[in-house]
Amino acid sequence: MMANDLVYQVKTMRELRVDDIVLHPIYRPDGLLFVKKYKKLTESVIKHIKKHFPLDYPLLVVESEEQLQQFLQFKQENEEEIYEQFQKLLTVHQKYMHIPLSMEMYDEQLVKRKKETKDKQEEFFKRIHPNVFMPMWRIFEQTFDSLRMLQRMKRLNEQLNDIISKDEAIFALFNRMYHYHDVLVVHSLNTMCLSLMIGVALELSDEEIIDLALAALFADIGFTEVPKEEFVHYLNSGKRNQELIKEHLRLSVEVISTSPHCRRKSIVYGILDHHEEYGGTGFPNKKQKEQIHLFGRIIAIAQLYDELVGGYVKEESRLSFEALEEVWKQGGAKMDPNIIRIFVDKSRIYKVGEWVRLPNNELAQVIGFKDYMRYPLHPIVKKRNGEIYDFSIRL
């Protein structure tokens, strides 16, 4: 659909072309970040998006950098029109999400701020906050039923924003990732969100939660010391370069040392241990079970789930429930089964009353389980046509 002499277009998934530039962030059905705002779409990215959404799913796009600059000027002069366009998109997109969406998640400039921000904090909120921490808070709102936990998470969210925006060294580390490669920054942010969800469920202290967040956020920052071409090859090859895995752990700890806060032992060990495996076959020291730092065990689970859904490795992506099932299978051998259980229980996927998207893009609602304690990933669902499907038949 054309708009305003091609200043921007509303395109469905089937109409997307390589090099189209999306004018808003794209969020996955689980609420995590999929594609950054103003991202130029590649064939691979379009393929991943199509796996998660139907062909009539709409996006607001332009077709060139020149049109992007025209759109930005047009938006300043026609905020009401663009606001309405985003509202229309939001209404459609909400049908496919596990969390409620908001305008802040699409474009912060169209939403009035309650308070002014200055200097580095202003730059942080302008460039990063709307695409990251708003959706993070929405995820927590839908995850925790306890008012106490919600209030605590809101306070921690504010503390984390404050630390990253005001600490010059930490802000510089984030900018380093932000300008390196989209995959690294999106994956790191999503890993942080998921790690925080697990950490709060484990009743970690406020100080531990903040340190966990920073360990998760910067777990892979060492890759910024590697040429981008080598990083892309590492992903496309299925992360088979064991020497690079070991090297990026060393480099990550070295890079974060520019921040006094990030030199804390828990952050360092969280980064060093996130490639260790519960059964003792991981890197770099073949630690096992509780020898692996708690942060490392948490980050490993968060990273695997996000990698599978995001499609960063070998350009293969899975639906949220498929990724959750793969994580579940790793319990005991590669990952801490107790933490995996907490992750599954806190996930919005496969909960009674929730809607799930089947591999054929058909929607179905979870209506119950035969045995949730033993098989929490095998619900009984009801399709829109009334047909009942029991996931346990795959056992």
Automatic annotation (TrEMBL):
Pfam families in alphabetical order: HD_5
Superkingdom: Bacteria
Every HD-GYP domain range: 162-359
InterPro entries: HD/PDEase_dom, HD_GYP_dom
Protein name from the UniProt record: HD-GYP domain-containing protein (C-di-GMP phosphodiesterase class II)
Organism of derivation: Anoxybacteroides tepidamans
